Automatic annotation (TrEMBL):
It comes from the Eukaryota. Residues 1-15 have a biased composition (Basic and acidic residues). InterPro entries: Tcp11. Belongs to the TCP11 family. Pfam families: Tcp11. GO terms for biological process: signal transduction. This is T-complex protein 11-like 1. Residues 1-55 are annotated as: Disordered.
Amino acid sequence: QNPDKPHSSEEKLSGLEDGQEESLDNPDQSIRKRIRQGAPGSHRDDTPKSSPPRPVSIEELMETAKGVTNMALAHEIVVNGDFQIKPAELPEHSLEKKVRDIVHKAFWDCLEAQLKEDPPTYDHAIKLLGEIKENLLSFLLPGHTRLRSQITEVLDLDLIKQEAENGALDISKLVEFVIGMMGTLCAPARDEEIKKLKDINEIVPLFRAIFSVLDLMKMDMANFAVSSIRPKLMQQSAEYERKKFQEFLEKQPNSLDLVTRWLQEAADDLAKLRCKMLPPHCSGDGATGGASALCSTAVQNQAYLKLLKWDHVNRPFPEVVLMDQTRFQEIQLELEQLLLTGTVLLVTFSAAGSALVDMPGFAEKIKTIVKVLLTGMHLPSFNLQESLATIGEKVCAEVNSCLSQHGFAPFSAERETGLKGQIQAAANPDNTISKLIDSRIEKFLENYLASSHQKSLPAIPGGLGPIQRELEEIAVKYVRLVNYNKMVFSPYYDAVLGKILTKGESQLVGKSEE
């Protein structure tokens, strides 16, 4: 199995999964991609070795893929309050769209040709009426007895066939009934589409438009079902996701390799950090020097912090957080932009002195400037140096304007040059001020993770006051995501960390005996 090959067997199988053509921007596509990348030998050079996966049948593979898809869908419904199912939209000039359009045109042309025969042939039209009947019945609730009887009686296919054979079929009357029934069953948002149907006089375009509106009504029913099951799903989601992941793990025993590597790195980082804080005599013990002070919760929190610095291009995401990769990546990008905003504000206030610190509205103006000019900063075509140069110009102009309005002397040319240089220096990863802001943001998030059971947020570190509101909003979103992930996968974390920490302690004991 080659992850770089564009048409692997798993991709072909993924097209057979239920509901895939009408999915949102779900993480299940990423999950299937990760299943492909999880083949033996890929990304496994420096990870603990597990038992080799046993051969699986096509049926088992499809069942596993469906289970993962259902788990991802349930997760998305619970985590994303705005989740909605939307119809698939094919790219404008794609081969799939061209093939679909050609097939659809051929089908409707065939129907039109049959209806224009003398006498007309109604085979295709009757089949379409049968499909419409099934769709209408699928919208009914158990209590809709009268509507069910009406649909069954009017759209009696045996009777319709007899009328067609005897030349007594009035298809316009049947279509009129269908449109009226659709108007009864549809959501209020579809009233306009129903009204447009009544203005279409030709049978073939009308049939085509009816099926288009029926597709929209299916989406409405599906989204109504999602909103209805969300409260019940939230009560059982953790257990359900854990159960589905366990089923997947039983079929793919190596599905915790990336998690093991991720947690091992977090434990090593934390041990080294703790060792630096201990007296000098422990430094010779390396990463195991702080192992005795480690606990499972601290390692997990450190691992979650590592996700905010993840190389999403070159490194696969750990399996148990894969469904939230997009959300973690969004938070990571927001923090990177906030880091630059905080750096610009800090150097600006430092350059201007106390004159602008308490000036109402000044910090918001600077944040607006930075936010607008850093839009798209994570795109490959974005030029950070040019944007920071423009930000420097705008910030200096705003500083001088505010100083003049409040009776202070504007910046000299020398001070302007110095401020612009400091702002442009923020593009350097080794910039002292950026590293200071970054470490304080990370410390704030770490403290919030450690005290997430408390209702109040931890105190904001010095220098982050101007970006406090934005940082707290990101922190709340981040910690909510982390806590839900812990709730679902904590048994797996405990099992993996039990081995990692036991191994670290045994190494420490061995060194002590030596």
